[in-house]
Design brief:
This protein is an alpha+beta fold. It contains 8 helices and 20 strands. The structure holds uridine-diphosphate-2(N-acetylglucosaminyl) butyric acid.
Length: 336
């Protein structure tokens, strides 16, 4: 366990901002976590993994909890599947590398997404046609109030697009300690999303390995997204909006080239396209900039303040709403 007062959170947010926390408490096991929850009972808590989806608007006046529990182990195995329990502090990408090395399938499309295993369940991270919820079996957590251990099923978590109960009615009530993923030993590769399938043209799907898919996903992401070490960012800043079919039809008459994907909740329109149409690629406010190669991303182009990022995001939302009548919602969580 490590407790630090007035601690820097520079290493715990991928925007490269420099907020402080009144207390930063790191735990290595469940008993330490329970002890911390007891010691700081009544305080404001915030659990942070790598901070890859957070925008700290100011210093955090409370206790930041950070899991250093990083193990993964197989829980059970059948002829076709393996259940792997990974602890919350393990980097999701490190887990995916380990799984690809073992030829276990299901998470490879999420390669190179920054963040930890715990955060992957909170945010239901997704990429290239796969979401964490597709392979999550259970989520284990400690209740902040009682210190009791609970195990939630996939259905309990009410996963949705970049969403779960941990962001809504369970917000700040649980600290996730482990996630169990159900992985396939054979088949199971998903290449139906746009560029990914094309990248393997001429190859037999049955001959591909999760390692090859992982490497391809990393190559595509590197082309489009800023490298965390180079420019601070939080990946996609906004969610792709889902609009009603009626609203979409009206817009399509005016913008026949508007890309779209039908979903069970309505028509999903790529926010990147909307932002690009507004001429916002490369748009800068202070040190914050809309990323040229993927305008869904806002980067810290050098010494950006949280306010620069917030104001640039507001401008993007205002312009998109003004032109298309569509309200973008940030995927990034603002921390006051
Ligand atoms: N597009 C443009 N201009 C651009 C880039 C994209 O018009 O400069 C349009 C194109 O029509 C393209 C479409 O946007 O077909 C989709 O682009 P892309 O495949 O890059 O995906 P995205 O919808 O912008 C989502 C996720 C990403 C994930 C990719 C790949 C969200 C909010 N973002 O982005 O997730 O990696 O799909 O699956 O759903 C993240 O959440 O942080 C993240 C990076």
């Amino acid at each position: 366990m490590k407790i630090e007062e007035h601690a820097s959170l520079t290493a715990l947010n991928t925007f490269g901002l420099h907020p402080n926390a009144r207390v930063l408490a790191e735990f290595d096991n469940k008993d330490e976590l329970r002890a911390l929850l007891h010691r700081y009972s009544g305080e404001r808590f915030l659990t942070v993994g790598e901070g890859s989806n957070l925008l700290f608007l100011r210093d955090f006046d409370g206790v930041v909890l950070h899991s250093r529990m990083c193990r993964a182990r197989a829980l059970k195995e059948t002829k076709d599947e393996v259940w792997i329990e990974a602890e919350s502090g393990l980097r999701l990408d490190d887990l995916i590398q380990q799984l690809a090395d073992m030829d276990l399938r299901g998470l490879e499309n999420l390669s190179h997404i920054p963040g930890t295993v715990g955060a992957s369940a909170v945010q239901n991270v997704g990429a290239y046609g796969v979401e964490a919820k597709d392979v999550i079996e259970t989520v284990r957590a400690i209740a902040v109030q009682t210190g009791e251990e609970v195990t939630f099923t996939n259905a309990d978590c009410c996963f949705a697009y970049r969403d779960s109960r941990f962001k809504n009615d369970w917000k700040d009530q649980y600290v996730i300690t482990a996630v169990t993923f159900r992985l396939k030993k054979e088949g199971g590769l998903r290449l139906d999303y746009g560029g990914l399938g094309n990248a393997f043209e001429g190859r037999e799907l049955s001959q591909l390995t999760p390692l090859e898919v992982r490497e391809k996903v990393i190559e595509i992401r590197r082309r489009k997204l800023p490298e965390v070490g180079e420019f601070g960012s939080a990946g996609s800043f906004f969610k792709n909006p889902v609009i009603s079919p009626t609203c979409f039809e009206a817009l399509q008459t005016q913008y026949p080239a508007m890309p779209h994907f039908d979903t069970s909740d309505g028509v999903k329109v790529p926010a990147a396209w909307l932002i690009e149409q507004c001429g916002l690629k490369g748009c800068q406010h202070g040190g914050a900039r809309v990323w040229d190669k993927q305008p869904l991303v806002i980067v810290n182009a050098g010494n950006a303040s949280a306010e620069d990022i917030r104001l640039l995001a507001e401008k993007v939302m205002k312009d998109v709403s003004g032109r298309f009548g569509i309200t973008l919602s940030p995927e990034v969580n603002y921390i006051e």
